[in-house]
Amino acid sequence: MTSSAVDCFKANLLNLEVALARILDAITPVRARQQLPLKSALGRILAQDIQAPLILPPFPNSAVDGYAVNLAGVTAPSPLLPVVGQSLAGLPYSDPLLPSQAIRIFTGAKVPDGTTAVVMQEEVTRQGTLIRLNRLPSEGEHVRPAGSDVRCGEVVLKTGRLLRAEDLGLLAALGISQVTAFQAPRVAYFSTGDELRSLGESLAPGQIYDSNRYSLSGLLAEFPVIAYDLGAVPDDLEQLTELLREAGQSFDLILSSGGASVGEKDFLRQALSRVGEVTLWRIALKPGKPLIFGRTGRAWYFGLPGNPVSVHVAFAQIVRPAIWKLAGASGFKPLRLKARCLNALYKTVGRLEFQRGQLALDEAGLPVVTGLAAQESHQLATLSRANCFIILPADSQGASAGTYVTVEPFAAGFYGS
Predict the structure, then answer these.
(1) Rounded Cα gap, residues 187 and 253, in angstroms
(2) Which of 116, 123, 183, 408 is positioned for an S-S bond with 389, CB 3.0–4.6 A?
(3) 188, 160, 183, 217: which is closest to 299 by C-alpha?
(4) Domains annotated on the chain, with CATH
(5) Among residues 170, 210, 165, 205, which one has the least CA distance to residue 190?
(6) pTM, whole model, 2 decimals?
(7) How far apart (Å, rounded) are the C-alpha atoms in residues 310 and 317?
(8) Cα gap 358→373, rounded to integer Å
(9) What 3-state DSSP class applies to 216?
(10) What does the pLDDT look like over 80-95, one tens digit per residue?
(11) How many CA within 13 A on the CB side of residue 87?
């Protein structure tokens, strides 16, 4: 899946792996922290390890509805035991269970001292105040030992963890009401182009609606960031220079679409050079080759291509891992898997290519993918119909129907520590 070094050298392009490594080496996470109540912590990044202040479960409890029994010394295959009480969730049986005794017990209820096992209610015959066991249970059967899930002092969540709903439940079970999270980075985005008009405006000949800001708004919603829409900016060097200068003082990251290539009105690389520095430009990626990375003021800057599909590809492959690092998340890697391709795919040798496809499961439950027609970088309708990228190596000429290809599902979530 690596790009050809020879092709990249000839075209003066960086391959994706090298470019991304340089970008991630340069970016340092936002280190400011804040205390958050647990209900406000979903999707935020932990800024310190969390140790369990207690054990889970905090007491031995029953895994089923049935009877807790003490079978010490019992050898009969179907013993008859007196039922001397009951234990309910929150209302435990307070006395120890003596040999040859039983109590009625319900799922989650505390198991009394002396219990050797819990028998499912389906496996006993009730005879008034007595029960007869249909079989002898094994030692500890259906008993959840105290501390079998979490030990006191154990690190349950580490710094850099993206908090999920499951994590909030774990922390609540441990009695933890607040967490320390990294401050959400401030991210600004804007579009450039004299041809762009906002929704609701009428279009003159040669004008189009600005779609990229809406795409970026949706893409950024995946992250623990505070996003700011700076609007659409004309192709004017002075305006772009001033915008980058001002935004560099207020934000942690700036994204733009358009104006990153080599046209007469592609001014962003020149504007960034005036107020900051250009670290790299042009990547051996299709679509998404003209991409600028650098810095202005305190902010990192990504100048994305103007073609809508190129925006999505460049964002997914380059900006997304950069934002996760900026936000303090650790170990992000995109989810990629192998799928059998149902149709032939075509490309030219030279650049790593991300084609759009539809990922599904076949009758056997195995992943299959269909490459979509209309793969040009301006074709948003194809992107909207897709649910994955099909990744074709730089030296590939495509793939035959029936062969296996690497796919990357859209919106696959965070995969890391």
Answers:
(1) 5
(2) 408
(3) 188
(4) 5-33+185-327 (3.40.980.10), 41-55+153-182 (3.90.105.10), 61-144 (2.170.190.11), 337-409 (2.40.340.10)
(5) 210
(6) 0.87
(7) 11
(8) 11
(9) helix
(10) 999 999 999 999 999 9
(11) 28
End-to-end CA distance of the chain: 24
Length, in residues, of the chain:
417
Q: Tokens for 66, please give them.
A: 């049935």
What are the angstrom distances between the C-alpha of 366 and each of 240, 339, 342, 359?
Answer: 49, 8, 12, 10
Q: How many CB atoms lie within 10 A of CB 125?
A: 11
pLDDT digits (tens, 9 = 90+) for 111-157: 999 999 999 999 999 999 999 999 999 999 999 999 999 999 999 99
| Burial readout 295-327 (b: 16 or more C-beta within 10 A, e: otherwise) | bbbebbbbbbbbbbbbbbbbbbbbbbbbbbbbb
DSSP for 76-101, written as a single string: -SS-EEEEEEEEBTTB---SPPPTT-
Closest of 22, 25, 48, 26 to residue 35, by C-alpha: 48
| CA neighbours closer than 13 Å in the CB half-sphere of residue 324 | 24
Report the C-alpha gap between 78 and 154 in whole angstroms. Answer: 42
Structure tokens at 358: 């539809």
